[in-house]
C-alpha cells in the first residue's frame, strides 16, 4: 500500500482527475460531465456500474433545474468529450454513479460515499490564482467547484483504481457511491430511496477542509453536523383595489413580513447553536392591488435534532400567529429535513488504527465542530437503521479562500492522504 500511494504516477493521476473535474463543474442534478467520466473510468477498472433510475428515485429530487438547463448541461458534457453511452441513463437529471466490485472471499459490504456536485458560483479568474496560472480553472461560466467535491470525486476514482488493482485482498463487496446534489441536500435521500445502502455493513464518507485547515491532519470525532429543515411558507389573502376598497382586502405580504420579523426573533437555545434564515420572498402584483399571495423560504439549522425541533415548533407558532393577525390562510410545506449525526465509536477506533499506516497524516484532531449540514447523515442513518455502522471523516488541508468562495482552492496533497486513509481503513475493517 505504501508503494502504491507514494508512487508519483498515482499522485499525478489523481491530480489530473481532480483538475479535469475542476474545469468542468456542474451543479445539482446536472453533473453529467463527472457522471460520464466516473462511469467510464470505473467500467474500465472492472466495476459493475449502476446509473439513472437504478440509483436515483426521481420523486425525491428537490430543486430540479428546468428541462432546458438539464439538456444544456447534458449536451455540454458531450461537447466536452463525454461519450453519450455513459450518461444516456442519467438524461433528465438522474446523475450519480454507483460502482461495485466483489472479491472471491466472503466478507462485509463496505461503501464509500463521494459527493460530485459543484456550485452556482463564478470562479475568480485573477492571474495570481494557481488555478489560472496552471490552467485548471472552471470552463463553465457561472459554475465552480468551490467546495472541493472535485477532490472527493478524484479520491473516489483513485480508491477505485487501488481496489481494482488489489482485487485479491477484497473480502465481500465494495460499493463506491458517487452522489449528486449534496449542496441542496436531496441527493442522498434520492439514492437511499432506491435502496442502494440496504446491504451495506460499513459506510465511510468525508470532506476535505471543512474547518480543519492543516495538511496532514484528520478528524474522526466530528461533531455538530447541523440538523437542517427547509420549508416553503405560503400566505393566501384577498386581492382588492388598494384605494377603492382597502378594508375588504387581506394583505398576504403583511402577513409574511410579520412572520419573518418574528422568526428572526426566536430566542436562542441554551443547549447548542441555532441558525434561522429567510432567504427568499415572492409576492404581489403591482402598486394598487392588495396582494393576495406571498411565499417565502425558511431554513432552520441546529446542533441537535431536538434543538432544531424547538426552532421548528416556535416557527410554526409564528407562521400561524401572523396568519391570524392578518386574517390569512396559510400553508407550510417542509421540503428538506436532515437530522444531525455522529460517528460510530467502533469505526473511530478503526480509523485511529488505520491512520498509523498513512505517511502524510501526523495529527489526529480529537474533536471537530463542523458547523455545517451534510446529507451524508441520511445515508448514515439508513445504514444504522439496519445495524450497520458509519463514519464521516474530515481530511485536513490548508485552503485558499473559504468553502463556497470564488477563490476556493486547496493543497492537492490531501488527495493522496485521503485515498491512502480510505484504503488503510479497509484493511483495518476486514482484518479484525
Ligand atoms: Zn458545500
Ligand atoms: Zn462540500
TrEMBL record:
GO molecular function: dipeptidase activity; metal ion binding; para-aminobenzoyl-glutamate hydrolase activity
Cofactor(s) required for function per UniProt: Mn(2+)
An annotated GO BP: folic acid catabolic process
Residue ranges occupied by any Peptidase M20 dimerisation domain in the UniProt entry: 230-320
Cofactor binding mode and count: The Mn(2+) ion enhances activity.
Keyword Metal-binding part of the UniProt annotation: yes
Pfam families in alphabetical order: M20_dimer, Peptidase_M20
Superkingdom, natural source: Bacteria
Cellular component, GO annotation: cytoplasm
UniProt entry keywords in alphabetical sequence: Manganese, Metal-binding
Binding site for Mn(2+): 147, 149, 183, 207, 404
The protein's name in its UniProt record: Aminobenzoyl-glutamate utilization protein A
